[in-house]
Amino acid sequence: GSAYEEELRRKVMGRGEKPGAELIVNTTGIRVTPEEFLRRRDTLLREMFPQTMALPGAMRLTKHLARSGVSTAVVTSALRPCLELKIKDRHQEWFSSFRAIVTGEEVLNGKPHPDIYLLAAKRIGIPPEE
After folding, report:
1. 103, 69, 99: which is closest to 84 by C-alpha?
2. Separation of alpha carbons 24 and 15, rounded Å
3. What's the maximum distance between 2 C-alpha atoms anywhere in the chain?
4. DSSP 19-82
5. Distance of CA 100 to the CA centre of its chain
6. Phi, psi of 73 (to 5 degrees)
7. Would you tell me which of 20, 61, 120, 124 could form a disulfide with 12, CB atoms 3.0–4.6 Å apart?
């Protein structure tokens, strides 16, 4: 395999799945098509995502914010089915405490562009300028 270096990761961020896969395949020189890369990646992710653990302190912090009346949202570049794999067995109760969940397919420009954050702010009733 080839290493997925930080510089390449940054270039892939904000692109759709297919353009991101094309960039990875072309940059690393791996000998698969972008479609095959995505198929193999998706197989691995379906195995890994149900085992996803929360970052240390994340649950405690967000539960505290919810109890304190602070509106929170989840903003992820992941597609909804991938997010569902991550939360279905371990984190459903926790994720129900968020006022909004916005996933990558809901916006034209993904992270680091502001689109996904602006949509989340709108859904929880916070004007973007705040």
Report:
1. 103
2. 11
3. 52
4. HHHHHHHHHH--SS-HHHHHHHHHHHHHHHGGG--PPTTHHHHHHHHHHTT---EEE-SS-HHH
5. 14
6. -140, 155
7. 20
pTM for this one?
Answer: 0.78
Low-confidence ranges of the chain (pLDDT < 50): none
Instruction: For residue 93, give Cα distances in angstroms to 9, 33, 86, 102, 106.
Output: 31, 39, 13, 17, 23
Instruction: Note the pLDDT of residue 54.
Output: 92
- Report, in angstroms and rounded to the nearest whole number, the Rg of the chain calculated over CA atoms: 17
pLDDT digits (tens, 9 = 90+) for 45-73: 999 999 989 999 999 999 999 999 999 99
Among 72, 76, 48, CA closest to 60: 72
